[in-house]
From TrEMBL:
PANTHER family: PEPTIDYL-PROLYL CIS-TRANS ISOMERASE-RELATED, PEPTIDYLPROLYL ISOMERASE DOMAIN AND WD REPEAT-CONTAINING PROTEIN 1
GO biological process: protein folding
Alphabetical list of Gene3D superfamilies matching this protein: Cyclophilin-like
Family from the record: Belongs to the cyclophilin-type PPIase family.
Main EC class the enzyme belongs to: isomerase
Superkingdom of the source species: Bacteria
Keywords per UniProt: Isomerase, Rotamase
Matching InterPro entries: Cyclophilin-like_dom_sf, Cyclophilin-type_PPIase_CS, Cyclophilin-type_PPIase_dom, Cyclophilin_A-like
Protein name: Peptidyl-prolyl cis-trans isomerase
């Protein structure tokens, strides 16, 4: 079996460490350069370390990146303008940026798709793709009810840019 991480640019690869194991995400600066830059800045600051996956919906996605765990928090960086792609689609393992009703309100919250979601195509910015460890994402604790709010949620152990990782 070939290694899906071979040939990836370490500057555009993230290691998302969960209690279940390591997830490798290939960044997509070709689709969303502003979002990739914001994510890498926050990762390098350690912003995501210890933050919860506060909204997790079976058959849909796991959302994290809010230090408050409420779904309303963000970073001290400015919000990012939408970078919608006409070619990239929300598939299993796609990483997208969460936002409010305004397309230009993305900040730090993101989600990873469990399943394809065509209704998100062209509506949310795609910034990455899981290339290894999706089985660990599948094990993130699910929320209850329609909103997917998680009590005692799983948390990001560590997030790192591969170029910086030892």
């Amino acid at each position: 079996m070939s290694d899906p991480t071979l040939g990836l640019d370490p500057e555009n690869t993230l290691y998302l460490d969960l209690k279940q194991g390591r997830v490798v995400i290939q960044l997509r600066p070709d689709l969303a350069p502003l979002h990739v830059e914001q994510i890498k800045t926050l990762v390098r600051r350690g912003f995501y370390d210890g933050t919860p996956f506060h909204r997790v919906i079976e058959g849909f996605m796991a959302q994290g990146g809010d230090p408050t765990g409420t779904g309303t928090g963000g970073s001290d960086l400015d919000n990012i303008r939408a970078e919608f792609s006409n070619s990239a689609k929300f598939a299993r393992g796609t990483c997208g940026m969460a936002r409010s009703q305004s397309p230009n309100s993305a900040n730090s919250q993101f989600f990873i798709m469990f399943e394809p979601a065509p209704h998100l195509n062209g509506q949310y910015t795609i910034w990455g793709q899981v290339v290894q460890g999706m089985e660990h994402v599948d094990q993130i604790k699910r929320g209850s009810g329609g909103g997917g709010t998680v009590s005692d949620p799983d948390r990001i152990v560590k997030f790192a840019v591969a170029a910086d990782a030892a």
